Amino acid sequence: MEDGKTDANSSIEAAWQDTSSWDHRRDLTHLGDYLKHFCSGRPEQPGLAWAPTARGAPHTLMITGAALRAADLSRYVILMSY
Fold first, then answer.
1. Which terminus of the chain has a smaller tally of CB atoms within 10 A, N or C?
2. Domain ranges, ordered by start, for the chain
3. Contact partners, residue 31, CB within 8 Å, separation at least 6
């Protein structure tokens, strides 16, 4: 607590990742490469091959500005997994 942060805040900060280094277009055609690049497995995050064992625990959160865009992403990710 010396630096003013709690354990909860530090774990939340560790969950976010800076993706500004991505130099390709951010569209559905590059989504698979994007996920592989940024989910490659840091020490605190083992990567795409790992999935939480608890039911309902998210692996990856995709935040969009519109529900229709979220639905498009969901459909695309489901197709990618087959």
1. C
2. 25-80
3. 73, 76, 77, 80
